[in-house]
User: Fold this.
Amino acid sequence: MKTHELKQMLDFPENLKSPRLYNRVISLFFPGGGEILDILERLHQAQHGRLEKGMRPDPLFQELLDKAKSARDQMIEAIKACGEDGVLVRIVKD
Assistant:
């Protein structure tokens, strides 16, 4: 489903940018989605806080950050694959 169709269906503002749009949909419609997004944000802040202090990236933070990003990206792909009827389709990865 295209972003403008999704905004219309959910009555979201037209000026809502894609990343925020998908994050809102994930938070509202995916069980545990808000928590995943919170974890992603906190890991991002922790990792970049280290870099701003001149420290090396923490490999554990980076691994967890990459996994959280992957989970979010998979949710976004499911949203994009949503039919015109608004039903999410299951995406099976080999």
Notes: The two ends are 23 Å apart (CA to CA).
